[in-house]
Amino acid sequence: MLRPIAKHAVPSRVRRGLRQAVERLAELRRRFYCPVCNCRVARFEKLPRYYYDQWERHGFDCDTRKWETCNTGAYTCPRCGATDRDRLYAIYLESRLRGRGSEFRLLDIAPSAPLSNYIRKTFPIHYRTCDLLMEGVDDKIDITTMDRYPAAHFDALICSHVLEHVPDDRAAIAELYRILKRGGWGIIMVPIELELEEIREDPAVTSEADRWRLFGQYDHVRIYSGTGFVSRLEDGGFEVHLLSATALGGSKLLQRCGIGDKSVLYVSEKQIACDDGVCRRNKSIAASPEGGNPSQISAA
C-alpha cells in the first residue's frame, strides 16, 4: 500500500535521478577492468586453491610470489575467465592489431578461449588456431613439426605457456621462427621463476608427482629462468624484446587490469633482413604502430 503512494508522491524525475545515483555508485565499486571482455569488475578471482594443495603435497620449492607475469591474487576475470596474462596480451594486441585487415595473418597456438574470442570479435585479420590435442582448433598440429605451414607464412603468432609442455622446445622454437615472415613478431611466453639462475629441466623426470615437485605442474617438463628463456629464444634466431609497464600503457593501467608489477611481455622478432652481416630491426615492436596507443584502452 505504501509503495504505490510513495511512487506517486515522489516526482518521476527525482526517482530517475535516484536510480542513476545508485547505478553510479555500483559502477564505482567495479574499479577493475578486463580488456578481454571489456567489462568492469569489482575484483579478479584468485588462483584456484587446487594448485597450492598440489604444490604443498608434492613439495614444490619455488615461491609463487617470485613468479613473473602471474598475479595469483587477481588471476582470472569473473566475467570471461581471462587470466592476467590474457589481459596483458589484449592490451598489447589493441595497439599492434588495430587497423590491420584480412591480409594480416596471426597464428594462435593452444589458444586461450577468452583471448581467442576477443581477437575474433575485435580484429578483422586472418586468424588461425592450432594445437596437437585441443578440440575446436583450426589445425591439429605438433608444434615441433608444423610442415602444414609454409616458411615465412605468418605476420605474427601467439605461443603462450606452451613450450614448458614440449620435450624438445628448441625444435618448437625453430618452427616458430621458420613460419614467421621477416619482420614478423610473436608473443612467446612461459612460466618464469625469477630466483632461478638457469632453466630447470630433466628428461628423466616423467612421473606426475615428480613433475609437480620440480616443475610445478604434472604436465610440465621444465621451469624457465628469465635469462635461460631469452637465451633459448635467441639461440633460435629471435631478437627478444622485454616490454615493461611503461611500454604497455603505464603501471596505473596494468593495476586497473589486475596485472602484477612483476609482469613482463616477451615479444620475439624475426629480423627484417640481413645484408653484409647487418640486420635491420622491426622498429614497431616496442612502439604502437600507426599511431596506436595502449593507454587508449584505459578509457573503456
Task: Describe the structure in your own words.
The protein has 300 residues and is of the alpha/beta class. It has a single domain, classed as Rossmann fold (3-Layer(aba) Sandwich), CATH 3.40.50.150. 32% of the residues lie in helices and 20% in strands. The protein is built from nine helices and 15 strands. The chain has a seven-stranded mixed beta sheet with strand order 6-5-4-7-8-13-12, with helices on both faces. Strand 7, helix 6 and strand 8 form a beta-alpha-beta unit. Helix 4 packs parallel to helix 5. It is globular, with a radius of gyration of 22 Å.
Write a brief caption for the model.
The chain is 32% helix and 20% strand. Mean pLDDT is 88; it is low at 287-296.
Please name the defining characteristics of this protein:
single chain; 300 residues; alpha/beta; Rossmann fold; seven-stranded mixed sheet; 32% helix
- What is the CATH class? Alpha Beta
Overall geometry comes to globular
Portion of residues in beta strands equals 15-25%
> With helices defined by DSSP (H or I, 4 residues minimum), what is the helix count?
9
